[in-house]
Specification:
Strand 1, helix 1 and strand 2 form a beta-alpha-beta unit. The chain has helices at about 10-30, 45-55, 60-75, 90-95, 105-115, 125-130, 135-140, 150-165, 170-185, 215-230; strands spanning about 5-10, 40, 80, 120-125, 145, 190-195, 215. The strands form two sheets. The protein has a four-stranded parallel β-sheet, with helices on both faces. Strands 2-1-3 form a three-stranded parallel β-sheet, with helices on both faces. The protein has ten helices and seven strands. The radius of gyration is 17 Å and the shape is globular. It starts with a strand and ends with a helix.
Length: about 230
């Protein structure tokens, strides 16, 4: 049997896309229609997370993540993933106290960038994320360079994510904004762009972006699938 995947959710749209990807892509790997690993998800209120983030309270973020981890461990999950880039700021506070091992979303994305031969990545995501070291740390460890959006771009991308995408609102104007930001990143020498918020892949992809995209949501889901199958019980 494949291992039981535990999903520590944060925002609904990104967590749902991750869950759907696991369930819809698993049959091709398992060679059986409709087959996928057992999956469980726990999600506290997004408001609880945003209150901690606004206050710069990473210990509070870690407490929420660990509460989900404990619940998922008790119902039989074998390992955990979190389809939310932003709260990975608290990952180091979580990993050593967690009842189960985790995959790190930025490590998964950085490994994929190396595999594809990219060298300089544009970073998109919430202001909390792009102001943090979540991606720069993992990219630097693999000798990759990263480019953050400008302050004005960060503000507008953050507004789109938190006021539109997390509510399932997908507007042409939002797509145009991301395209403009990515075009500037391309001109600045980036050869790919990280979709570093798990909702961004709901509007941006290789078909409408001026740069190749690294879809953090689906890449994490696929990494979880590989682990669940390779470490089958």
């Amino acid at each position: 049997m494949p291992q039981h995947i535990g999903i520590v959710g944060c925002s609904a749209e990104g967590a749902a896309l991750c869950y759907t990807t696991i369930c819809t892509e698993a049959p091709a790997l398992l060679g059986r229609a409709h087959a996928h690993p057992e999956v469980s998800m726990h999600t506290p209120s997004l408001a609880d997370y945003t209150a901690c983030l606004d206050a710069g309270d990473l210990e509070g973020v870690a407490t929420l993540m660990l509460a989900s981890a404990d619940k998922l461990a008790k119902i039989g999950a074998d390992f955990l993933i979190c389809p939310d880039n932003t709260i990975h700021q608290a990952f180091d506070l979580v990993a050593s106290r967690s009842p189960l091992p985790w995959l790190h979303i930025a490590e998964v994305v950085a490994d994929e960038a190396v595999k594809r031969g990219y060298q300089r990545l544009g970073l998109t995501g919430t202001r909390w994320l792009v102001d943090s070291d979540v991606y720069p740390e993992k990219l630097a460890a693999r000798s990759l360079d990263g480019l953050r959006p400008s302050d004005a771009e960060r503000d507008e991308i953050d507004r789109i994510i938190m006021e539109e995408l997390v509510y399932g609102q997908f507007k042409p104007e939002a797509i145009a904004t991301f395209q403009e930001v990515m075009s500037r990143m391309q001109q600045a020498g980036c050869d790919a762009v990280v979709l570093g918020c798990t909702e961004i892949p709901l509007i941006m992809n290789d078909g409408n972006a001026p740069l190749p995209t690294l879809d953090s949501t689906r890449l994490l889901a696929r990494a979880a699938l590989r682990r669940a199958i390779e470490e089958a019980r």
